[in-house]
Amino acid sequence: MPVILTIADETVIIGAVDGGGRPQGVIVTDDESVRTWAEETVDGYLAAADPMTLEDVETRAVAADGGT
What we know:
Layout: E1 3-8, E2 11-17, E3 23-29, H1 32-48
Antiparallel strand pairs: 1-2, 2-3
């Protein structure tokens, strides 16, 4: 099951989602050991990630009303 991991200030939010991206459960905590784990987990993903440039992302202008 996919998991969403968010660190916001001193709070860690761990959310489980199903294959369709629908929320199935959430844990919200300010426990220091969970925050340490979350920071180490995020740092590991960032270290293993390939950097992206603007050329890697398809962009387009969108009008304020949602049109192109």
